[in-house]
Amino acid sequence: MKQSTLQSGMLLTLAALACSPLADAQSRRVVDASGSGLLTGVIRDAEGVPQMGALVEAVLPDTGLVASAVTDARGRYRLNLRPGQYNIKATAALLMPAVRQHLVLARGGRTVVDMTLSTLLAPSGWIPASRRTVNEPSDDWMWTLRSSASRPMLRYADEKSYTTVDTNEDGQLSISSSRQESRRGATGGSVSFKDSDGGFGRGGSHQVLVLTRVDEHGSGSVLRADLSGSRTPYPVAPSADVSVGFQRRTILNGYARTVLSYSGHPELTSGVGQTGLQGAVLRTAERMELGDMIRVDVGSVLREVNFSGNAVAMEPFLRVQAHGPGGLILAYGVTRSRGTESIEDLDRVQAPLPVAVMRKGHLRMETGSHHALSASKKIRGEGVIEVALYQDSLQTPLISGTGTLAVAEIPAEGFIADPTTGTYRVAGKDYSSGGVRVSFRQPVTHSMSFGAEVASGRALRATLVQQGSLNEVLAGLSPERVYAGTAFADGKILRTGTTLRASYRWQPKRTLTAVDAFRVSDDGAYLSCSVRQSLGRFPGLPQGLEAVVDLQNLLAEGYQPYLSSDGQTLYLAQTPRALQAGLTFTF
Description:
Elements: H1 2-18, H2 21-34, E1 37-45, E2 55-60, E3 64-70, E4 76-81, E5 84-91, E6 98-105, E7 110-113, E8 115-117, E9 125-129, E10 142-146, E11 155-156, E12 173-176, E13 186-197, E14 204-214, E15 220-228, E16 240-250, E17 254-269, E18 275-290, E19 294-306, E20 310-323, E21 328-335, E22 356-359, E23 362-365, E24 367-378, E25 384-395, E26 398-402, E27 415-418, E28 423-427, E29 431-443, E30 448-461, H3 470-475, E31 478-493, E32 498-506, E33 526-534, E34 545-552, E35 560-563, E36 569-573, E37 578-586
Parallel strand pairs: 1-7, 1-8, 7-12
Antiparallel strand pairs: 1-4, 2-3, 2-5, 5-6, 9-10, 11-12, 13-14, 13-37, 14-15, 15-16, 16-17, 17-18, 18-19, 19-20, 20-21, 21-24, 22-23, 24-25, 25-29, 26-28, 26-36, 27-28, 29-30, 30-31, 31-32, 32-33, 33-34, 34-37, 35-36
């Protein structure tokens, strides 16, 4: 026992001597003489405290352990290695190991790899980032999970680095750490000025303010306010959409999110004396990580609408995901909230506008249920292929239309209109659907991806009606089994400052609801795209200034025309064409 203690003490003493200024000078001479590389760094815990006595090992992927060192009282270590590719591992008692894989050590170079060891319950943090997929609407606040600090990042030092290590005269200096080990709070935001043509509840000019805050503990909040300007030829008070979101860390390496949204739209009317809609949506979700195998998302969506009456809907959701061998992921999800199947769906701080219509004497919202069983697996590179079976049930599905109805043509129930854009929503028949969905996504560069999807299921389809009232057209709707196909691309175009997302979703003619309706996002059917172009690249314009263009159904496809009794041509459409464009300044 004494011999073991003595050996440990001698090892710590030798490690401390190795990190002394004299040893540093000797190491530099060794590097100069042999042409080998020098690996140094500091080991800390999640609170930024240096860890004395932590073991750092350098391992060749093919042959195993090469060298090891023990950190001194300041958490420092030093290894002299031959050029090559190594895996660096740091371990300490009661802390999770940290690993840096595929580290390339150059001849005569000096590399700094700082690592942070986390406790078993160290939670993940979140930061704002760009949108995840092609089908999400613009101006979203995105939460992107980053792993706890047990996964250091490798980057090369630059002039703005806060690191105090000097560059070796005969080699390069590369840094593997954050600029500051301790987390600091961060505040940012954006201001947007946009103008819209079309889009239910989106007409006129809009001013959008987004403010974000992330504290030193990794929790944070976001505020989004969207105020419309004056609108003609239907002058009404401005509309307002305000959302506030919070995220906090929880046990089991998880986190919880809450997003509260309020909408006030005085322009919306039923056409029979009901004017002005107010709505609120409360979305909450929590994620739990049960080891490395199981992930559970659970939450709920509470919607409330006031429109000459009140309607309330509570919509829970649950998703369980299991990681299997060979990168296989199995998942089962159930939800009653369209567009919300997991905690990632709360990334959109702006909730979809809650809409309700009178039906059978009661104010009702579109509701339903969705069950899905899926299996996904990584394919070549970072690509992913997924196969899913689903079963849906929809009550009071809302169908989009365009045109101005005469007073005599307005249904007494199941109708709400936006006169500022000439669009309306009308309730269709209840129906159920089930089918199969196959999709894949494949990166083509590190910043651009493309993918495709094919789905089968039932959708409401209109019979060909030349002339008749809206009620007669709706009476001819019937659910039929059809197929839908989607192709999309999204990402950044290198060296242009352009962020692009584009999709084309095809469905058979005269289908007025989406196949796999719970999955399809607000972009809807046919050709839709969004382009964000950085203008800070041009002389005289500030950094952070972007031009934004968002288009839905650019080719105006899928319209189902019919003549009303007064001779006007009206249309039903799964996704009416809409355009939104403007400027955004991020600070």
